[in-house]
Amino acid sequence: MSQKDEQLKIKLSIADRVYPLTVAYSQEEGLRSASKKIDLMIHQFEENYAVRDKQDVLAMCALQFASQNEQKTIDTTDSYNKAVERLIRLDEALDRVLSKKI
Questions:
Q1: Torsion over CA of 22, 27, 32 and 33, rounded to 10 degrees?
Q2: Helix, strand, or coil (residue 25)
Q3: Which residues contact 40 (CB under 8 A, 6 or more apart)?
């Protein structure tokens, strides 16, 4: 079995709770990084908004991550649409130039 296919047993701590997981080797780094980001965000929410209920803090973290993901999707879609529009204008300009030479 290759290292990529290997399953690892890890423990992640989120909001002062430990979660044992069995994950693919390739997922470990991403999960550990996400766990750290969640804990950092929890700390920031608790300090800046005086929220003490972990469920409320976790809900705000989930909303923050989801909105960041949605914004990336929107930005990517906008960039894609702008690129397509530029390619269409370029294609039209090339057609005009090529049609004049014939």
A1: -160
A2: helix
A3: none
- The per-residue pLDDT of the chain, averaged, comes to 90
* DSSP of 45-82: HHHHH----HHHHHHHHHHHHHHHHHHHHHHHHHHHHH
pTM value surpassing 0.90:
no
Question: Model confidence over 20-36: pLDDT tens digits?
Answer: 999 999 999 999 999 99
Structure-block tokens of residue 65: 């991550």
Q: Tokens for 2?
A: 């290759």
Distance of CA 42 to the CA centre of its chain: 17
Chain length of the chain: 102
Q: What average pLDDT score do residues 29-51 get? A: 92
Residue with tokens 């994950």: 23
Beta carbons of 4 and 27 less than 8 angstroms apart: no
| pLDDT computed for residue 4 by the predictor | 58
